[in-house]
Structure formats: C-alpha cells, structure tokens
Amino acid sequence: LLGAARARVEAARALNALISLNDRADEQAARVQARLDAGESLPLAGVPIILKDNINVTGTRTTCGSRILANYVSPYDAAVTERLHQAGAVILGKANMDEFAMGSSTESSASGPTLNPWDPARVPGGSSGGSAVAVAANLTPVSLGSDTGGSVRQPAAFTGIYGLKPTYGRVSRYGLVAYASSLDQIGPFARSAADLALLMNVIAGHDPRDATSLDAPPAFHAGTPDDLRGLRVGVIRESLGGNTPGVEAVLQTTLDALRAAGASISEVGVPSVRHAIAAYYLIATPEASSNLARYDGMVYGERVPAPDVAHSMTLTREHGFGREVQRRIMLGTYALSSGYYDAYYSKAMKVRRLIAQDFARAFADVDVLVTPTSPFPAFRRGEKTSDPLAMYAADVDTVAVNLAGLPALSVPAGFETVDGMRLPIGIQFIAPALQDERLVNLAGGLE
Ligand code: GLN
Fold first, then answer.
1. Are 370 and 238 a contacting pair, CB within 8 Å?
2. How many angstroms does the Cα of residue 47 sit away from the middle of ligand 1?
3. What is the ipTM of this complex?
4. pLDDT tens by residue, 134-149
5. Catalytic option among 127, 146, 172, 410
6. Of ligand 1's atoms, which has the minimum distance to the CA of residue 152?
7. Is the pLDDT of residue 379 over 90?
8. pTM exceeds 0.95
9. Which entry of 74, 128, 146, 151 is annotated as an active-site residue?
10. Domains in the chain with CATH codes
11. CA atoms of 388 and 107, how far apart (whole Å)
C-alpha cells in the first residue's frame, strides 16, 4: 500500500499538495505488519494517511506553512496521531496549508501554492487545501485537516470530496497547533461516507489533555437511502441568492434527491448568520494574536539574532510571519485593546451567542439544515490574493457553524462548467451539536 501511495505522490508532485514526507513510514508499516502477524485486528491496517502540517507527529516537521516554523521538529504526537497509529494507519506525509490555517485558498504557504487537480489554474480552497488535494487526487484514501471557519468543508467542496467539521470537542485538539482555540476542530477528508465513518470512529472520543474535549463515544456508519425517509431538512433562507447558477442548480438537484427518498424540505430563517463573517473575524483574529505570541524566536523555530532580545523578537516575527498572518495579529490586537474591546470583541461575542440561539431555534423544527458550502466553485489563483476582504467573504456559508460549535459536512453534489472546465460543487449539511453521526449517515443515503 505504501509503495503505491508513494508512486502516486511522486506522479502528483506538480500539485504541491505535500510539505514533507514521513521518513519513518516504512518503520511504522513494519510495526503494523508485526501486529497483524500477532493476530491483532486493526481498523486502518496499513492505510496510508496524510495530515495537515499543523498536526504534530513525533520526529517530523510541523511547519504550519510558515517560515517561522520551517525547521521545527515535533517532540510529541497529537492525540489524533496516536489514535491513527493505534488503529494501524501509516502516516505518509504532511499536507500544504495556508500559513497558520489563515486563508481560503492555500496560496499563502511558505511552501508555495497548492493547485486544484480539476483545473491547475484554480485554487483547491483552504486552508486545508493540501489535505483535500491528497484525497481528491487519490494520493491517499483519507486525510486530516483543521476547520476554524470552513477550512475542511470549503476545500472539500472545491475538490469534489467529503469534508467533515465535527462538533467542537469531539476530536481532541491536543497536538494541533492553535489558530483560534474556541473555533478550531480537526476534521477528515474522504471519497466515501463509509471511509468518513471509519476514520471518525478512530479519531473521535474523549481526551483529558484537551480541556474542551467531550465524552461522546463515536458511533459512525454510512446510511442507506432508507435512512432519508421522514428526515426533516431545512434550507437556510439566508444562503439562497448570491450563488452562481451552477451552485443553485446543484442545491436544487440535491433537494430533489432528498425529496425523492422521502425527506421533507422546508425553508428556515437563521437571520443572524448575516453577521457571521464580521463576528468570526473579530473573534478569530484576537485569539490568533494571543496564540501566535509564543513565536518570538526564543522557544520555537527560527530566530533572527540582534544585540538585544526585544529587537531579536521583532525581527524574528517580521521575517518569520507572512503578510496575512501579520495583518491578523494586528487586527486581533486592535480588537482586544482597551478602548476598542467593547465595540469589537465583546460585540462579536454577543453576535456569536445570537447565532447559536438562532440555530437552536431552527433545529426545533428540522433534523438537518442545508446550504451550499460555498457560493461559487473554485476560483482562479491570484484572483483574491490582493483583496483580503474578498478572500474573507469566501467563508460566508461556513463560519457560522464554527461560531455555534456545530457539526457540518460538505458533500460532493455536482458540477458547474466554467470556461470549459468542469468544477465540483459541494453542499453543506449542518446538524445539532453531537449529532455528527446523522450527517455521515445522511451522506451514505445520498450516494
Ligand atoms: N478562511 C478562514 C480563515 O481564514 C477559515 C480558516 C480555517 O478554517 N482554518 O480564518
């Protein structure tokens, strides 16, 4: 399995999906073989997997797509890494990503952009673009990314695969490099609902090392069309309009398929989601400014030397962080500063509460909510790099879910042809907290 996966990685080099290869993979594979020979049964025996480069694996680099961590080698395994090893998976390598998971296109990595296999002139989405391409281009059957505001679901949509953002707390964040801790969640990419279920049953579960971890044992399985009968599906009204014709058409065919299988469809208002982008960027950037304060060249990563320590820290951060990361640290520091805190951060926290309440109200009448994952298919490389607000707006359909801590799944649902290129479209299903299983079940029913 490992050899075949390596050959595919080699063939797909031009896509720039990976930052590094795990040179302990053979050793790990041999250990899995020994366990199999000893009669152990392993749910992911020998399955090669790729992890986003913000998830720690002992003895391998964790760069977060940043120059500041270019040579940082992790001394420990993330909780998900441990669980994958325990299940017999073999970590093949680490995937490219937007620097510190800040972005929607995988263009801001210090390792260069990742290309979309459907059209190399287009982005794969982000920030987990490398992990998405690893699965979409068949380098490995499954991979892991992280989703703070859409970074698993949006690249899944742009590359035509599944991407799940679990309920906040279902997958341990121990060993995931923090971006915005109250929003971050590790999530899987897969090409089938069955693979998604298999992987979630391995990576989800309680971990005392993550103070926000929930004790909810995973019980995932892919459903059948029978499971769709009687399902109450609510289309979020605020997500209609503003989509490309292809996205609208794919949403309609998905609703038709659900109806044909016996689900009931209604339209539901979640009015506060209109403020989700503003609230998200006023919550994510303050958390990021605090989390990234640790990269000063003293403990982690690169250091630019200077005669005095303060100057060295300044130069290290100036040289080590890219433009988008610097912009967000400044935004976040500003929003937290005395005199502005009430107007920005504390206001955003109130909007966050409203969004959670609106979702709770909507779930009184429906089992799942549905929206497009993105208002458009994959955009061209360079199209939004000089316009940060346009890049932020790409997350319009995904960030509210993180603010409310809910689980959501992007399902590959169709295509739109743009300039002669066939581009995948994703549809997002959202469930109440801890009902992640319902999403994977539904996805199986739609296959
Ligand atoms: N695009 C969003 C951001 O830049 C989401 C990123 C993510 O989910 N990691 O913050």
1. no
2. 28
3. 0.97
4. 999 999 999 999 999 9
5. 127
6. 8
7. yes
8. yes
9. 151
10. 1-273+348-447 (3.90.1300.10), 278-336 (no CATH)
11. 12
